[in-house]
Amino acid sequence: MGDVHDLTLLEQAAAIRRREVSPVELVEHYLARIERLDPRVGAFVTVTPDPARAAAREAERALLDRAVDVDTLPPLHGVPLAIKDLNYTAGVRTTLGSSTYAEFVPMVDDFVVAVLRAAGTISVGKTNVPEFGLPCYTEPDVAPPARTPWDLDRSAGGSSGGAGAAVAAGLVPAAQGSDGAGSIRIPASACGLVGLKPARGRISGGPLAANVTGLSVNGPLARTVRDAAALLDAMAGPMPGDPFWAPPPPPGATFLAACERPPRALRIGRTRTPVVADTDLHPQVVAAWEAASGLLEELGHTVEDVPPAFTPDVVKRFETVWSVSATLTPVDPAEDFRLRPLTRWLRARGRAVSGPEFARALADMQLAARAAVAASAAYDAVLMPTLAAPPARVGELRDDGDPARDFANQKAFTPFTSVANVTGQPAVSLPLHWTADGLPVGVMLLGRPAGEAGLLSLAAQVEAARPWHERRPAVWSA
Q1: Confidence (pTM)
Q2: Please, which residues bridge with residue 221 across strands?
Q3: Which of 420, 215, 204, 210 is nearest to 322 (CA)?
Q4: Cα–Cα distance between 219 and 202 in angstroms, integer?
């Protein structure tokens, strides 16, 4: 066995069960890598070595207890993981990427944090996010920028930028993220990873998240499709009172098992017409999309051109809803000056929207979502670019002097991902392409409503045909 971080999430879980590697060894290995490499990568806001070591010792005691049947242990027993800094973690600083929350320590866990712990994972810390998760780049005041390990001058994306950077640099085998307009898939494309945005209601956002819009969901970032599926299995399920519920898999079925079933011949739509902004696509993005189309046809699927999902009026409704959602995180008015210019601008836009205007925008967005889902019902999946360009340079999209321009830059960079958040469908970004100078470029597959199993089956088939997980950035072996 080489370095333990070369192993995938599932390989590490299996090695732990075989007692070939211990949870203590794994946690110490990753803590050492974080200490050595994270100053260059910017993946973590807070590292939690003492709680991680204590949890690892407890996990190891269970393995050494010969009275314990390893088959009764949780599926990811003893495997290190990281939690996004937008998610509450009891007793651990949770900054939400904002100087106004720089010392905030929640008293409760988010439900997803609790279920990941119950699945046996051990958190080594909180991953870097932009302020309140609003931008598609991760450059907060409370931490250095999150950088893609493929080029440390470039951004890891956002808002799960720290999670993407951590996995791509080998600082954890996989990570939890969240996605309100592409925030898992954007870092997946920028960091050469699998990023899965699950269906609305698949994973609980409880107990405190005020997800009145239904846009944001939790999900996995991983190096392989199977690792992403295993993490989805660990996170999936509602908590009582959730406003959105996705139908569970049939009894005995798992999302990981779906990866072992090759799909039948599928009908796949494809579009590369930008939805959120009228913008040009980088030639390498077009090349990645065309190559993915050809690969899907080689695998026996029918690929057909389809029109874009939404018209510009829907984008306006989305922007209204998004700006109102920016106001939902409470901030003392006396501390408002400490917010980033983009955050203040979005919150001002949101506060200017009346209650009836917000309700109308949300209703119109939902009507458009129903129409879009109906229009794509004949297709098993729809292929799109993930982003309009390869990873942006740190600071390239950000414009503190003109937040409106900042927002426009982001829309031009991410003109596809929010479609899945509006419709609630699952979507996955796959790292199928690299530019000549070694930058990753993702392609996105949009699945049927609540259709993660079929989407993962197709993604696993694509990965088997064009494997990527042994392709690693230089920092991986540093």
Answers
A1: 0.98
A2: 175, 195
A3: 215
A4: 9
